Amino acid sequence: MKKAFFLTICLVQTWVIFSQNYDELYRPAFHFTPEKYWLNDPNGLVYFEGEYHLFYQYNPLGSLWGNMSWGHAVSTDLVNWEQFPSPFRSMEIYLLFSGSVVVDWNNSSGFGINNQPPMVAIYTAASNIQRQYIAYSNDNGRTWTNYSGNPVLNLFNDDFRDPKVIWHEPSQQWIMVVALSSKHRIRFYKSPDLKNWQFLQDFGEVGNQDGAWECPDFSAAG
Question: For residue 54, what pLDDT is reported?
């Protein structure tokens, strides 16, 4: 009985793997890969309305770094992924560097409609300077609208990127960490609505200072 059960599980796992059409010789079976072209940093990992959303750095035009945009894939089980058109494409005036995505459960941003919380993306728009933009979605991440008041944060600095944003429940506000990469410094900001940000403090110039500090991450407990 145990052997039959184990064999059934193995067959189901095999079916799941190959049902993704991931049967190309060098295609990973469990790790996500786009249908084609180059990908890099995961930008927004969020669960909403029964779906896991994966956003990632993406070149929609080639297999090398360039045309920096975001890719988007959705899964209900973290194994089988449905890919969607790139939600944010590189523009003539800027490239899209890394960032994060949140669900604005309390609609603090005011972007939500029909009493539904919006998804909000926070990303770096990079040209001769790097500044922080936001965009929002009211259809579970299928389409996005850039905020008309962008940028929401701008130091007129060419090395200011990769915002990670979380909701801090005890203080009832959003917290952002963002990198001043070449300075080996992480900067903290707070906001009541994802649109207006106030400086809190810096951390850095300690520990390993080789290379650039990029893509900071953190979480809040309690």
Answer: 96
Instruction: Give CA–CA dist 212/38, Å, rounded.
Output: 22
Strands 51-58, 69-75: pairing kind: antiparallel
What is the residue-averaged pLDDT of the chain? Answer: 87
Alpha-carbon distance of 135 to 68, in angstroms, equals 17
Task: Please identify which of the residues 41, 158, 193, 202 carries the catalytic annotation.
Answer: 41
User: Is 210 in the active site?
Assistant: no
Of 148, 89, 97, 101, which is closest to residue 126 (Cα–Cα)?
A: 97
Instruction: Report if residue 222 sits inside a domain.
Output: no
CA distance 194 to 108: 8
220 or 147, which is more confident: 147
Spatial separation of the C-alpha atoms in residues 165 and 132, rounded to whole Å: 11
Q: Which amino acid is residue 187, in one-letter code?
A: R
Domain containing residue 154: CATH number: 2.115.10.20
**Is 172 within the bounds of a domain?**
yes
- Give CA–CA dist 164/216, Å, rounded: 7
